[in-house]
Amino acid sequence: MTDTAPRPTLEAVAARAGVSRATVSRVVNGGDGVRDILVERVRKAVDELGYVPNQAARSLVTRRHDAVAVVVAEPETRVFADPFFALQLRGISKELTAHDNQLVLLLTEGRDDHARVGRYLAGGHVDGALVFSLHLDDPLPELIQRAGIPTVFGGRPGWSGDRREVVYVDSDNRGGARDAVRHLAGLGRNRIAHITGALDQTSAADRLDGYRDVMVDADPRLIAEADFTPAGGERAMRELLDRCPDVDAVFAANDLMASGALRVLRESGRRVPGDVAVIGFDDMRPVAEQTDPPLTTVRQDIEEMGRLMARLLLRGLDRTAPQEGVGAPPSSVVLPTTLVRRGSA
Amino acid sequence: MTDTAPRPTLEAVAARAGVSRATVSRVVNGGDGVRDILVERVRKAVDELGYVPNQAARSLVTRRHDAVAVVVAEPETRVFADPFFALQLRGISKELTAHDNQLVLLLTEGRDDHARVGRYLAGGHVDGALVFSLHLDDPLPELIQRAGIPTVFGGRPGWSGDRREVVYVDSDNRGGARDAVRHLAGLGRNRIAHITGALDQTSAADRLDGYRDVMVDADPRLIAEADFTPAGGERAMRELLDRCPDVDAVFAANDLMASGALRVLRESGRRVPGDVAVIGFDDMRPVAEQTDPPLTTVRQDIEEMGRLMARLLLRGLDRTAPQEGVGAPPSSVVLPTTLVRRGSA
DNA sequence: CGGCGCGGTGAGAGCGCTCTCGCGTAGCGC
DNA sequence: GCGCTACGCGAGAGCGCTCTCACCGCGCCG
Question: Percent of chain B having pLDDT more than 90?
Fold first, then answer.
């Protein structure tokens, strides 16, 4: 733990290079409109002095921070500890880094924290926000809307509000679910069950809708509500076996629940995919490839979702001036999914 | 995506409250030495105007940022996608939030990125850094040392350098490993194998050392090197069965590998813990509780590690003035582990 | 040959805040 | 009742940067 040394200022560089502060500033910010000779001289002085611009001073006048907040509203531990979020974060990080932006992570714990986050965002510490708001009744989107800060949501926010200007990035949950169920039907299955995710999340609701799109008049007993956890998947599967012992296929709203379902099916003496075909969602490699049999699942490109969120946000902030006439605010994007066939269906 | 409105300044609040800027500043920063009447009046003005201090302006003069960088050096995707890191991050976040500090996340991808991180840290954007440097040959610690910024490491950095001033938080990997192996020995096992983690990480090396502490003259064939992944655990277990079919216990350096080992043992027709007892490390609940049988394992309190890292760092930055004579720089902390008995040993 | 335009540069005015000083007022002792 | 301390408050000077604007010298046109 060393203390930080006094850092050279613009002034110092200017003195050393024999030019004015303004010129050094110009060079540091790209060097347009400065003679090459001077540019070189200034660069040299910068190197020699090890000059690094003071971001605080810069922000003070530019009102930009080159920083973006990533807000993760996570009352339950669950989602945070799963690879999903990590991958998305990674995508975000890559994109932000590529555009010289910093990532400020805001994790919320409980309701009181919302206020803190709202204050922070409204406080003008960051240029924009990427928000993962998972639950339908989450007050966070409201708060953020009020903060008046450019925002892109991860996943369609379940929002009662009438705002149309919400920008989000999501997977085609409904379409992916349809593909999965159709695939099961294509295998000749007709007692196709669905294990839902937590239905207060739009992803779960959308996947359920996709299931219903195909199974228009499905036996309601074929639908078991769960919560995206392996344990929830097990519980739901037991319920299903109980209610409909003749079930011959299961579409689980994520891989974790599918893995739980597989376990229960095995316990019950059923063979997969022989007796019961199983499909998951997410294509979480570590899970999907390790199950027995390996899981057929609906892949979404999670890292790409993160990258896209960041890209949309940055575009919205339109750095680099409104040159290309891309003035239009970015609109939401729904990424396609693909069915990945492995052993379970 | 709304644009941010013009924000009220200290000046505005001062005018409204009928006091000077200085007084408002005092109130905003705690209100010491200001009459209660004025404090109240200023607070009211602040509320009415929705005043939020401009952090950039403040940092410019205080040279503090109330922000801490969390650096995750993660060449491989693996660790990032596992719950371990997420939990630690959560602990960090909680502690930082409690002290009104922001968390700036820096993920590195590949070697080139190290320079960027170094520049950022040296650039005085944050007050300190929490660094997860996992590999022995990682150049990051060096870089950071050079940046001259207060730093706490997550896990003992494997460092050839002769610096003694490195501060880190780690689990008692060696002690935990000893406990695990002793427990197995206590069950009467004497052909106790070890599946190591990636040995270029100190945690893996330390656990191996702990194993050796107990198994002083262990058959070298009882040690299989792996990489902390389930697949690696499977591979290692197969190797072990191949080399020593009479193995009667396995201590795996983490739960993920233990779960892989369990799978292989089951495949080979062995019963756990009857024929072979198995112990993992980490106590990653979702994994350890879901295996069949549930995994006996060495628990480390990961979230607490994160919290502690943040606490040490903040203490090192000694906000709140050096009042309590805690002037001494914080030193490293090694947290104890506990053996959690479940079904597998 | 005078004026005009233009690219290149520097001077200077802040951005919004903190913090040091110094002044005014109140409270204390003698 | 006077001086002294202590406390509360305001004035003002920056923190390090950006950005506007005016200036200067040059080449060019009329």
Answer: 59
